[in-house]
Amino acid sequence: MERALIIGRFQPIHNGHMEMIRRAAKRYELIIAIGSPLKSHTVDNPFTGGERYEMILRALRDEGIEAHIIPVPDIEYNGVWASHVMSLCPPFDVVLSNNPLTIELFSPYKRVMETSMFSRKEYSGKEIRRRMIEGEPWEELVPNAVAEYIKEIGGDERISYLSRTDEYV
User: Torsion angle of alpha carbons 125, 129, 15, 112, nearest 10°?
Assistant: First the structure.
């Protein structure tokens, strides 16, 4: 079986991500790379790398999906970013992405397959974070295990707090 890489920030992992992961898991062994794991406690990146790892792990367990989960720290040089990611991950055959920059940067090195987005207006980290800030329902946009974990760690309260202060932004 071929191995595929899916990379994202997962701030938080949501049902759109999970739909892509479910479809990919039928065809590939998966590597899920957590981008920007060192960024946290801002409105755009409220969750730590470890918290995102736990969210992904719990969501995958509920679906019965196995995957390698690898944090991939940022580097500020796009010219070597794909090589950087490849050096941190187990070997893989294909990159699954809908991000134009990711597609462009990996194309010289790996087969890249563009994925479809699933209800992108609804299923986006930005929309979920906005709903948390505005006190609107957000739980139905993420897997149940993720909603429970976010509440367990006070993540929804954290992002609301972060939106009201520039101390961490």
Answer: 10
Closest CA to 36 of 80, 86, 71: 71
18 φ/ψ angles, rounded to the nearest 5 degrees: -65, -35
pTM: 0.93
Domains of the chain: residue spans and CATH? 3-164 (3.40.50.620)
CA distance 11 to 21: 16
Question: Which pLDDT tens digit goes with each residue over 104-143?
Answer: 999 999 999 998 766 666 789 999 999 999 999 999 999 9
Rg over alpha carbons for the chain, rounded to the nearest Å, is 16
N- to C-terminal Cα distance for the chain? 43
Strands 67-72 and 29-35: parallel
